[in-house]
Each structure stands twice: as structure tokens, then as C-alpha cells.
Amino acid sequence: MPYIDKKSREKYDKDLARLRKLINEQTSKGDLTYILYSLALEYFKGRESYTKISESIGSLSDAGEEIRRRKLNPYEDKKIKENGDVF
């Protein structure tokens, strides 16, 4: 995951905090897909090119891999300890 410095994060954090408050247990997979898709479209809006479109897809993919690495894999490891491995 390409980490950005604290100063760069600060320009997004306030608005992201507002968006995070809107996302709760009522948020559906469709809602999340809509939010992410809308943000990706905004990234290349007005400067559409193969590169910009590809970068937006890559960023979404990278974010998914980071979620897998930091959240899903540890969750699966926890469940293996609780329930035993399949093999």
C-alpha cells in the first residue's frame, strides 16, 4: 500500500471522517461499490486516458489487497486457531 505522509492525509481526513460516519451496519455492498466507483471516476474526470483509468483500477485493487493482508488474513488465522485447520 503506498502510504502518504501526514500532511497529505490531513487534506482528506476531515471529509473522510464525515463519510465514515455515514457508513454503518445499514450500508450494503452495493452502497460501498457505489462510493468507491464514484471516487475512482472523480480521479480521472476531465483527464480521461488509459493511464488514469488504469491507475484508478490499480488503486482499487491495491486497497483490496491491503484489506486482505491486514484484515482478512488475520481473521482467517484466528478462525483456524479457534476451529482447527481444514488439513
Description:
By secondary structure, the protein is an all-alpha fold. The chain has a domain at 48-87. 77% of the residues lie in helices and 0% in strands. The chain contains three helices and no strands. It has helices at 6-22, 29-44, 50-83. Helix 2 (29-44) runs antiparallel to helix 3. The longest helix is centred in the last third of the chain and has 34 residues, at 50-83. The protein is extended. The two termini are 31 Å apart.
Write a concise keyword list for the protein shown above:
mainly alpha
Query: What proportion of the residues is helical, as a percent range?
Result: over 70%
Radius of gyration: 17 Å
Strand content: under 5%
Distance between the termini: 31 Å
Total of DSSP H or I helical runs spanning 4+ residues: 3
General form? extended
Give the class from helix and strand content and strand pairing: mainly alpha
Low-confidence stretches: none
Helix-strand string? HHH
Q: How many β-strand runs?
A: 0
Q: Biggest sheet: strands, sense, closure?
A: none
Average residue pLDDT: 94
